[in-house]
Please model this.
Amino acid sequence: MKKDKGARRIKIAYIGGGSRGWAHTLMNDLAQAPQITGQVALYDIDRPMALLNARWGKRVNQSPQARSQWTYTVPTTLAAALRGADFVAASIQPGPIEMMGSDLNIPREYGILHPVGDTAGPAGLVRALRAAMDYAQIARAVQRHCPEAWVLNFSNPMTACTRTLYKVFPQIKAFGCCHEVFGTQRMFADLVHEYHGLKVERGEVRVNVLGVNHFTWIDRACCRGIDCMKLLARKVAAPGVVRPVPPQESARMGFFENRKQVTYDLFRRYGICPAAGDRHLVEFVPFYLKDEATLNRWGVKLTPYSYRIERYQTAPTGFRKRLRDRKPFEVKASSEEGVKEMLAILGLTSGFRSNVNLPNVGQIEGLPRDAVVETNAYFTADSVKPEFSGRLPAGVEALVSRAVSNQEMIVEAALARDKDLAFQAVLNDPLMTLPTDTAWKMFSRMLRATRAALHGWKV
Amino acid sequence: MKKDKGARRIKIAYIGGGSRGWAHTLMNDLAQAPQITGQVALYDIDRPMALLNARWGKRVNQSPQARSQWTYTVPTTLAAALRGADFVAASIQPGPIEMMGSDLNIPREYGILHPVGDTAGPAGLVRALRAAMDYAQIARAVQRHCPEAWVLNFSNPMTACTRTLYKVFPQIKAFGCCHEVFGTQRMFADLVHEYHGLKVERGEVRVNVLGVNHFTWIDRACCRGIDCMKLLARKVAAPGVVRPVPPQESARMGFFENRKQVTYDLFRRYGICPAAGDRHLVEFVPFYLKDEATLNRWGVKLTPYSYRIERYQTAPTGFRKRLRDRKPFEVKASSEEGVKEMLAILGLTSGFRSNVNLPNVGQIEGLPRDAVVETNAYFTADSVKPEFSGRLPAGVEALVSRAVSNQEMIVEAALARDKDLAFQAVLNDPLMTLPTDTAWKMFSRMLRATRAALHGWKV
Amino acid sequence: MKKDKGARRIKIAYIGGGSRGWAHTLMNDLAQAPQITGQVALYDIDRPMALLNARWGKRVNQSPQARSQWTYTVPTTLAAALRGADFVAASIQPGPIEMMGSDLNIPREYGILHPVGDTAGPAGLVRALRAAMDYAQIARAVQRHCPEAWVLNFSNPMTACTRTLYKVFPQIKAFGCCHEVFGTQRMFADLVHEYHGLKVERGEVRVNVLGVNHFTWIDRACCRGIDCMKLLARKVAAPGVVRPVPPQESARMGFFENRKQVTYDLFRRYGICPAAGDRHLVEFVPFYLKDEATLNRWGVKLTPYSYRIERYQTAPTGFRKRLRDRKPFEVKASSEEGVKEMLAILGLTSGFRSNVNLPNVGQIEGLPRDAVVETNAYFTADSVKPEFSGRLPAGVEALVSRAVSNQEMIVEAALARDKDLAFQAVLNDPLMTLPTDTAWKMFSRMLRATRAALHGWKV
Amino acid sequence: MKKDKGARRIKIAYIGGGSRGWAHTLMNDLAQAPQITGQVALYDIDRPMALLNARWGKRVNQSPQARSQWTYTVPTTLAAALRGADFVAASIQPGPIEMMGSDLNIPREYGILHPVGDTAGPAGLVRALRAAMDYAQIARAVQRHCPEAWVLNFSNPMTACTRTLYKVFPQIKAFGCCHEVFGTQRMFADLVHEYHGLKVERGEVRVNVLGVNHFTWIDRACCRGIDCMKLLARKVAAPGVVRPVPPQESARMGFFENRKQVTYDLFRRYGICPAAGDRHLVEFVPFYLKDEATLNRWGVKLTPYSYRIERYQTAPTGFRKRLRDRKPFEVKASSEEGVKEMLAILGLTSGFRSNVNLPNVGQIEGLPRDAVVETNAYFTADSVKPEFSGRLPAGVEALVSRAVSNQEMIVEAALARDKDLAFQAVLNDPLMTLPTDTAWKMFSRMLRATRAALHGWKV
Model:
């Protein structure tokens, strides 16, 4: 087609190509990138969903705003998807969604609550075991079929998935992408508006990012010469801002509403701003999850498994309905950065800076080398280089180190199929205060419930 | 006197010279070292107790077994005690003993139990704040009056005290001595007897030591060619060895009895042997201290404050009684190593190896540089050099790292009089699972109760 | 003035404000930056030259192409220059130019030749001693008068000057700028033209930079998807490219002509491309400077002191002549990046990437922490962060390490006024093969000749 | 035999069992160790010499002073020698002795002189290539046949040999033994005698050792409370001690006489005492080897190849003569420590401390991890642990780092058969100042001359 003339032809392999969220955003963003064109190979073990997404992609091509046309294929093997790929995007569910049921419900019997359960806590660790098994396979396939391709990971637990890729294939060019920090930039942008009356984009808030995914921290934030950290201090000091959320207010809250009470509290205690939603933050510290009432008091709600499974199961119906519609798809700017990152890596833009997950080569001092951490990085031709981001204050470093230790142990345990080591990670989790014998029983039950995804394990 | 002819004349400054335990052992051990003689300057803020100990020392001199005579002086200032000293021994109570009351009892109101309370947990941390204040003063005095002297620390919290010495006077020649590991060597010696029928001395069990004081670990133990770790594995696997201690048995137990159930359990979970008494170990992990019944089930009892204060207050009466006795003191071999260490440092023996607390220069991989850690070290002329001891397994390293982080934070907080940082250490303690606002209240009460020993603090 | 409306007002302190080269370029570049305006304070111990430059600045303002107007002041004290400064630029001559005479000529008597003599070799080291004395003073003045200002260093020896700034005032925001790498980018751009027929800008050649100033190396170079390292390999393998330069050709060469024979040879030997002019490179290795004939055979000439002093002394005459001219100054794009860097630091552009000299926080693996090294860095709002650039191959790392050791020793020696340590640096220099007693004599003579600039030294 | 009753039975595999020097000393020392008995398997590619040594061993057994009897076998394969070994001793000639001819003589044509030529310089590097080939084979054989055995290396180049063992079989238990430091201890003992009138054993001089083999340094030396470093400073400052050695004196000197002029000079320049013979020291720095006259002036002589080959060839005749003699062998204390080290490793003594060559795990700060370095270490049951020995002063660290870089490069080059990398090591050698093209020719000639020992190389 005319509009693609001069565009670079590339191939993107999409693992988890039947996925509900990010796949659609990618299609939307690719349609707005006139510098590139080519093929997106949607691979999924749930092939019907991948075929559905391919149809979706065709509808995106037909959008009046589309400036680039893409071919959406649905290969039957991972190898076929990867062969010749310039980029690999991965966003998968580790184990069928139903396994989140046991991840969440068994610990709950022992008094351990997970507002999210996909990153930390016993639930996040067991999910990581499954994910690492899948990602080991992906790493080996990339090594065989497209060792020079850049791999963008979008699955959780982000750190365990990305760590597995590097552990299995150390020369891989991979990084993990997460938009959780964007929300914190938006919080700062709102403060700039509140205190200075300026409307600014979140991208204008320049932040220094340090930590691990979903437990990142910001120690400097600046926007148009305004020190945003001071605005946050002012906000937190204002009367009525930090407050117990009363039960009646909590009862009315949606699962994803963010009262920022945990963010404010951690900022007050540690003097540095956590950069993830409160529902994630509470899973990394032992302070807010004594029981559901305590959690609610801090403005966070448990997202029940019933809600998750329902949303998951009804999504395809909605997609099918939209595909049957005659109404053309509207393509518009998204807040995701995957395509911008690809363009910079292809050398087609002058460079790009964002927060990503990469093995630590020193970008965060005081955390172990090779562990996957999240900081800003700079994207340029065939190069994603993390920025030197300094060191977390001692109090926060202690908390983050704990998450890093668990990342290292759980990935190692998954690859070695070592239940004892995996259990040591569970024992080290901040949500864990059970006696070791009780904990062992709980953990054993969790593994057995998810054993179908733990090939080669004795559980 | 004749018997000291040819002996090297030295001066030992004893800070806490009125102390009840180790001072008497030192006198006993010095009397058996014919290679040295000289002066012991007993300095204590409780001068009457120091004078009592000086009388005790004279009686030791008169013992028929004494092979070396010492002059015991009671200087009125620290400066006078230190001037000209070759060695400084420090064993002090940080703050009056009564402060252990608030250290233990306030957390107890919040459900936080401390079997010991002098090393870790909120009690250990608050004690560390006081101790660091005292040790900062000692470090400055050593720097001024005897910068070349070797300082032996015997006070708890061992790591915080020793760390403070180095932080305030980095060129200090100091190390911390603790006999807790000896008990584990004895456990191994017993196993050698049980399984091989051999009677061996604890010193014949060669161990590799890694960790921080009271939370040390042994990954290799060898005695007459026998691998003692295998004996421990055999022991733990034997039926009935690991078991819940029934309430009636627990009720009859003395405070210091060690059922080793925690030792066995940690060995089973982590594959490496913890090397401290169970009552210390439980304070470093969140598994065994849910409530008193749980603790008792693992064979550990709470040592109540009432017992401590009673023992403390009655001890001098016993001493005085023995001094009034005509019965000569009997001098005999003790299990302490302080005098052996001094002899090696003086170059009077061929060298000596034992576990001590020193700043980490790499003797333990994976733990931060400069933090005080416990490993074997080699003593020779004017030199105490730690042995390269390797790395803890990941699961244990995570637990020990947490203690190390807290050591660093609490000493820094003490020197900077920074309550926020001290509180961050409390939040990071394994015994802490309170919400941050409740924790802050508890911590504030604890500080206020001990404020008399926190000069210059705003609490 | 109208054209400055909306521009940010800043103050730049220029130390060495009477300098002949970079000051004029800065004026030229500032005139083309409509986003900023303000004051440039030209401070120089040679005040007449600074006054001359202020007149020059006024003429630049009058240029028809000028889009920004600047006030050029000539303060009489360093303090006055620095107070209120947002940026400090430093380009000075360490010691009067005449001292280059002894720097170059005394070693020459001993058979030690310096084609440049401002960076390495005994001449560079003695110059570094003087420079470090000056830069220690600058660091202290910045700390007192404008601790938040960003300092751009342009003086040689670049690494010693920048290292001194950080050693004296560790919180300083300073970096060193050098355009030597640009020449190598141009070489690659020429190769792209030669082999692919494409005309490209040097900035389009994306390079990874590793090393120390004037001894930097490039291990990856990419331009429009072309691997430039392969082009260089092709070039070097072509017949007649690497060749001895015959005496008659050498005789006709200008001092600054670059035959690249040394570049080619080092690339061939080490498989990685040195990124500085040959005249600099030969001073970092012992291979090419046996005698003048050998040097000439490799296409490099000695720049004699007579030439330098003559050029230095005649420059002002030329300036005065141009100032007397009626002809308006033409303002046009320069190849320097200082103003681009300032704009990025002010947050007025979206960011900027270039090679600069910064303390090593890990951007080069295998070189010691804190030593000043040269790599790419990323400039954004109030932030200059080095990029992680990997590690030099072992053979080159050995050569660069030697330069780094000398940087560390000579700066330490200067600040401690320690002649023995400075001499140890001389002994470690690659140009040094004299017996130690002869070397000591030579070094002592060099120091005595330059003693007027070595305040507080006993030489 | 009666006298071996209760002795531990062990097997020692001796690689290079036909060797002339250390094998005889080992036999002598074993005969004096009543705690052990067993078999020594003498393996050598020169089997007749091994058989000769076996006869020698039998004669040692018959010595009236022998307190332990040993069986000396001469297995025909390396595998047979190693199988069942508790210890492996290796002292081999890398390549036939004749190859020292080209090692020494080719560089000499280019003006590069080697007083020893077995450790550093182009000769040492080419020897290292051969040695690494041999030691790679030994490492693999140990891994296969006796992975738990302790390996004592005695061959030069010590560092390259030991490094190869660890590089090929990282879990090997190996260390390198060298008595060069003993000579420096004796120098200190002599100074104690000279200045204090005390006769002391060299072992009583407690030293801290830092460096690489044959280029070790001592920064602390203490004997009976006397600071020996001060005695050395006094000695060096005395008139006439440091002096040029006149030609007539030099002409009369034996090859192995040590005038210590280089030791004194380096001590004076660097403030720390080198701990190897002057003939070794001069090969690690570029100061003393300009030409033979310069070398002689510093009191060192070239040991010509003719002398070496003559001594090598005549030695067996002497051995045979002694074997034919009726005169019983006299067994007496030697100065070697190999048997003492074995006894400590067997757990039969209370421990032993000496300087040995081990991979750097931090025992020397500032030198790269894993490189083989020489420091004190502590020997105990199945354990040889290096002592933390601190850091070399910057000036010396620069010199030693260079040797370490070359160790790393030459071993890597040998294992990868990479001539370019090997050449980079040659270019980095302190004795090398030739232009790169001339150096390449010299190096190529050296490799070709020794190609029979470079299996699999293209030279």
Q: What stands out?
A: Chain B touches chain A at residues 265, 269-271, 285-288, 290, 294, 298, 366, 368, 394-395, 397-399, 401-402, 405-406, 408-409, 412, 420-421, 423-425, 427-428, 432-437, 439 (CB under 8 Å). The two ends of chain B are 55 Å apart (CA to CA). The mean pLDDT of chain B is 94.
